Amino acid sequence: MFVQSEKFVEAHGGKIWDIFVYGQESNQTTWKLCKMNLAIRGIDSNIKWGDAFHNDQHNDLKADFVLANPPFNDSDWKGELLSDDVRWKYGLPPKGNANFAWIQHFIHHLSPSGVAGFVLANGSMSSNTSNEGEIRKNMINSDIVDRL
C-alpha cells in the first residue's frame, strides 16, 4: 500500500520527498518484507515491529493521513488488557473482535485535520454486538465519518 501511495502522490503532481511513512507490523516476516520493499524504492520510513495495541511504537504520532488494511475480525487481540485505554474515545471495543479497536487506533493517530482510509470486513458496517453499534453511532454523531 505504501508503494502505491508513492505512485499516487507522483501521479497527482506531488513530490515523494514530501511524505514520510510510519507503520507497525506484528508479523516479523511481513515487517521485514515491508522494510525491504520501501528501502529498494527509496521511500523514507519508520516501520516498527510489534503489537500496535499493546506496544504502540508510534504512541505520540499524529499523522495527516492514515492508510491501513488491518487483520479482519481478529478475535485474539487481548482487548481485555486494554479496557481503560485512551484510544477508546468512542466506546470500548469488544474483546472478541478488534475491528473497532483498529478504527479507534487510527483515529487516535490522526492530526486535527488528518484523514484516514482503511478497509475492514463488510460486517463492520452493520454489526451491533458487544458495543460495536454504539461505537459506530458515537463516531457518526461526532461528525468524523465521511464515507462508509
Task: Write up what this structure looks like.
The protein has 148 residues and is α/β, with parallel strands linked by helices. It folds into two domains: 1-50, no CATH class; 62-143, no CATH class. Helices cover 29% and strands 17% of the residues. The protein has four helices and four strands. The protein has helices at 2-11, 28-40, 99-108, 132-141, and strands at residues 21-25, 45-49, 63-68, 110-118. The strands form two sheets. It has a two-stranded parallel ribbon with strand order 1-2. Strands 3-4 form a two-stranded parallel sheet. α3 (99-108) links the parallel β3 and β4. The longest helix has 13 residues, at 28-40. It is globular. 16% of the residues are buried. The mean pLDDT is 91. One of its GO terms (molecular function) is DNA binding. Pfam families: N6_Mtase (PF02384). Its EC number is 2.1.1.72.
Summarize the helix and strand pattern as letters.
HEHEEHEH
Question: What structural class results from the helix and strand content?
Answer: alpha/beta
Major beta sheet, strand line-up: 1-2
What number of domains? Answer: 2
Percentage of residues in strands: 15-25%
Annotation field: number of helices: 4
Number of strands: 4
